[in-house]
Design goal:
Length: 276
């Protein structure tokens, strides 16, 4: 009896093995496997001594995603704003108050407060067609990365006497969100969401690929865009005794000219340091 059961078991196993469908290998979307992105690491900045600083200028710039050169920021496969937002909400990055860009102690915003601020739950009332009574409906307004069309960076330009080079370092980054009227769908105003300390942000940006329209085999990361200066921007402020933005003392074409003047001033300073 036991022998008969054993033979029947072997027949069933062999029959299952014969009729089993072979497992197909995972399909590769391309002719090679892209693995280098996960191996990238940020390159640490060189130390700069205060005694070697000959000249310094701090400026603030706005990067508008709607400009053609800045379109990689909005790549729908991995949009920049969503990458940063997810890192903040997961606690990987610390967000600081939009009122201060010096990352002082006590200005960090708790993650729970950020979630409540940018993922609001509202209650609306609709008419029930059966009872003809108004009933409450919970509406969850989740954060939409498309409402962020600009970011602002704060950076320092210094001339290092030790290496005789002009060095630019981004210190902080903030996201500027459009506030939209729910009834008309039009933009009412803009608001700064929060500030981020850029040296901490580099570890996140190095892990996310950006579309490269020049060469699909040469992948770029968001960290490359900032460090290689592959973006266009408008200067909105330089350090000054009144601590005011350009828009507070210039309008229209004068505002544009003032922005270009600051850019040209930095270029001419470095240029005139050398004799040809």
């Amino acid at each position: 009896m036991n022998r008969t059961l054993l033979i029947l078991g072997l027949v069933l196993v062999l029959g299952t093995a014969v009729h089993a469908q072979p497992t197909s290998p995972a399909k590769l979307d391309g002719i090679y496997k892209r693995e280098l992105l996960g191996t990238r690491e940020i390159i640490p900045y060189d130390d700069i001594r205060e005694a070697d600083i000959y000249w310094e200028k701090r400026i603030w710039r706005n990067i508008d995603f709607r400009e053609k050169i800045n379109l990689p920021f909005t790549w729908p496969v991995d949009p920049f704003v969503q990458v940063v937002y997810d890192a903040v909400m997961s606690g990987e990055l610390t967000a600081y108050s939009p009122l201060y860009d010096d990352f002082r102690e006590g200005t960090a915003i708790p993650t729970d407060e950020l979630k409540a601020r940018f993922n609001k739950v509202d209650t609306t009332w609709i008419l029930d067609e059966t009872t003809y009574e108004e009933v409450p409906v919970i509406v969850v307004n989740e954060f939409d990365y498309k409402t962020v069309q600009k970011i602002q960076i704060k950076e320092d330009w210094v001339f290092d006497e030790e290496t005789s080079t002009m060095v630019v370092r981004i210190i902080g980054l903030s996201m500027i969100r459009d506030r939209i009227d729910p009834t008309t769908g039009e933009v009412i105003t803009t608001e700064t969401m929060f500030w981020l300390y850029y040296p901490d942000l580099r570890n996140v940006l190095i892990r996310h690929e950006v579309f490269n329209d020049k060469n699909s085999a040469r992948y770029l990361t968001y960290e490359d865009i900032f460090e290689m200066r592959l973006f266009n921007s408008v200067v909105v402020k330089e350090d000054n005794v009144y601590d005011r933005n350009i828009e507070s003392y210039a309008t229209g074409i004068d505002q544009v000219l003032e922005s270009e003047r600051i850019k040209q001033q930095i270029f001419e300073f470095e240029h005139t340091l050398w004799e040809f």
